Amino acid sequence: MLRARETSHDARLEMPTEPTQARRFEQARAARSATLVEDYVELIADLIAAHGEARATEVAKRLGVAHPTALKCIARLKREGFVTSRPYRGVFLTDAGAALAEKVRARHRLIVDTLRAIGVPAEAAEADAEGMEHHASEATLAAFARFLRESG
Question: What is the pTM of this model?
C-alpha cells in the first residue's frame, strides 16, 4: 500500500480521495470477474463460426485449462444465460451470449488497431489486447476510436 512520504524535495505523495480510490479498485475487481466470462463467450463464438459448435473439450484445450474447469465455467455461463448445451453435442450461444461475444470482439479489434497504429508489432498487439480488452473503460475505448478516425 502506498503511503504519503517525504522525498528529498519535501513533496508528499498525492493520493486520490478514499471514495475515488475505492471506486477504481471496484472497477478493477469487476473487470477481473467479467474477464473469465468474456473469454469463454468469445472463444465459443469463434469455435461456432469455425466448426458449427463448440465442444467443452476444445474450449478447455484452447484456453489451456483442465476439462473440469471448462465444464464449471460453462455451467456458470448457462446460469447467467449466455449459453445452452445439448447432450452429446456442443455448447451454443444464446442471443445474450452472441451479443456479449460481439461486444468483446469489437473491443479487441479496436485495441489491436490502436496498438498497431502506434507501432506495436502484430503478435504483441494481439496478445496485449487479450488482457486490455477487459479492463479498458468506455472513455478509453472512445478515445481510441477517435484517435483512429483522426489518424487514418
Answer: 0.76
Distance (Å, whole) CA 111 – CA 90: 30
Do 63 and 46 touch, CB atoms closer than 8 A? Answer: no
C-beta pairs of 132-137 under 8 Å, 24+ apart in sequence: 133/38, 133/104, 133/107, 133/108, 134/31, 134/32, 134/34, 134/35, 134/38, 134/39, 135/28, 135/31, 136/107, 136/111, 137/27
Question: Looking at domain 19-151, does it have CATH number 1.10.10.10?
Answer: yes
Domain locations along the chain: 19-151
Q: What is the tens place of the pLDDT at every residue in 90-140?
A: 999 999 999 999 999 999 999 999 999 999 999 999 999 988 988 898 999
Exposure letters 4-18 (e unless 16+ CB within 10 A, then b): eeeeeeeeeeeeeee
